[in-house]
Amino acid sequence: MSDKPHSKSAPAIVTRFAPSPTGTLHIGGARTALFNWLYARHTGGKFLLRIEDTDRERSKDEHVTAILASLKWLGLDWDGEPLFQFARADRHRAVAAQLLAAGSAYKCYLTPDELAAMRAKAEAEKRPYVVESPWRDADPATAPAHVKPTVRLRTARTGETVTNDQVQGRVVVPNKDLDDMIILRSDGAPTYNFAVVVDDHDMGVTNVIRGVDHLTNTARQTQVYNALGWELPAFAHIPLVHGGDGAKLSKRHGAQGTDEYRSMGYLPAALRNYLARLGWSHGDDEIFSTEQAIAWFDIVDVGKSAARFDFAKLSDLNGNYIRQTSDAELLEHLRACLAGVGSAADLTIAVDLKSPARPDLKLLKEVATVRPDLVSGVALLAAFDAVGATKLVAALPSLKERARTLPELAAGLLYLIAQRPLKLDDKAAKLIDADAKQALAGLIARFEAAEMWDASALEAIVREFAETQGLKLGRVAQPLRAALTGRTVSPPVFDVMAVLGREEALARLKDQA
RNA sequence: GCUCCCUUCGUCUAUCGGUUAGGACACCAGAUUUUCAAUUUGGUAAGACGGGUUCGACUCCCGUAGGGAGCGCCA
């Protein structure tokens, strides 16, 4: 991992991620965090965290906890302690007072009702709603005693405010379109666009990387920087992530919370890789390690257009990562995944029928056919734990070749917790006809005589049996699979038998013979 | 409505004035196979539209269309 500074003379890069704890970590937010993190790590700078909790109504501690947990799960470590914005209200007020004293801000006695009326009028007349406060130039002595004022920034009415954005390029906003923004509410609370500037400055943030939805805020924030005489950070407004239909990502598209992606069985490394490729690229590289992403990441390679979220591609990537991950580690990821999977009832509600089936939901449906007593990921996890890590790990190698998500892996493990006598699904039941029963009986005798109980020995037995009977291997292997797993699809049957063990495997075969 | 932004295969993207417009996912067909996958071979598929500039435009400029974001005493 490169911890070398970009260049010796340049000041250290400081980026930040500033989520608002009014909900869990949105997947789009996760990507914003990732870009900030990658850039900081790439340059050997710092990646800071700020919790924007100034909306006291909607901010919740549980959301803070959830957001931090999601960032950790994604492997995005931040430097230092998170800064809580609300705790800095005094500092914000002090800066506002400084602006007031300098004449760069003024008290405005316009009431919410008056503002609403102005707005309605503007809309009725179809002209842009730009507040022109009479208090900008009024004599403070004429202020009404009963109205608590807001504090507005006194901004230029002519000229233009220019943002040289590292992604969007030069963005120009005429100052006449920008009204005197409120920096302090009538209750003394700082507003977002003001607090952000003060905090970014105080935290020493050099690069602001955030979603384009903040682009128009930048002009206003620039005015604050200018009023304070502070140096502007570099801005990079990255494109948003949309759902598969091009509309803003929402529940309808399957999932928006990062924790849901964990439940759906995506590995953090795979999600990182996928998210990094959304809006950013390094030539034709598709699958790369986090170290490579850090080494390669640069803002200049971020594109301008919005990207659509594609679960198929994420799943493919995830399959690659699953295959690369060690069995022991995979088991840990599986645990974390299942621990977050609720009941099927929880999952069916919000999801659009047209969006791809959620892997976790699919798993739950499958579990219901094998073990109806297990109704949630947590219950399933307990059943797996009863089987023991040794068996689970032994079953993983042949399973992970074919799984794209963790729930698929869990589904493949289901034969281990199926209870005898197995309930065969329709296709499997069909496979066990009279001929098959006869073959099974013949095989059972040979299996009982087997000296070794491992996949290759078992395969040799079956191959020989098939040959002497003049049968194709498939004619014998398929009924075996059906009897052992209750399904027509499973990992190679000989692996299944080896993992199941002699006693259980024979018992299952006898149940069907 | 006003302001700003975006537009290459279905999707993510490469291309930084000269390419048979490349890769990945998805899809289709073949090989392999005890099932499903994985693997492997091949294939379908794109510069929104209209004008310029230029010897030459996907690349630069203008317009049109479509999409997105923002316009709060929310963040």
Describe the structure.
This protein is mainly alpha-helical and 513 residues long. The chain has helices spanning 27-43, 61-74, 89-101, 112-124, 192-202, 215-228, 258-263, 268-276, 290-296, 311-324, 327-339, 344-348, 359-370, 377-387, 389-400, 406-413, 426-431, 434-448, 455-469, 473-485, 493-500, 502-512, and strands at residues 14-17, 46-51, 83-84, 105-108, 150-153, 160-165, 169-174, 182-184, 207-211, 234-238, 241-242, 307-308. Helix 6 (215-228) links the parallel strand 9 and strand 10. The model is unreliable at 1-8 and 349-354 (pLDDT under 50). The protein binds one RNA strand of 75 nucleotides through helix 4, strand 7, helix 5, helix 6 and strand 12.
Short structural summary:
This protein has 513 residues and is mainly alpha-helical. Helices cover 48% and strands 10% of the residues. The protein has 22 helices and twelve strands.
Give the N-to-C terminal Cα separation.
58 Å
Portion in strands: 5-15%
Shape: elongated
**Overall pLDDT level:** 89
In this structure, how is the largest beta sheet organized? 3 strands, parallel
How many separate helices?
A: 22
User: Count of DSSP E strands?
Assistant: 12
Low-confidence stretches: 1-8, 349-354
**How much helix, percentage-wise, in residues?**
40-55%
Backbone structural class: mainly alpha
Strand order of the largest sheet: 1-2-3
Round the Cα radius of gyration to an integer and report it.
31 Å
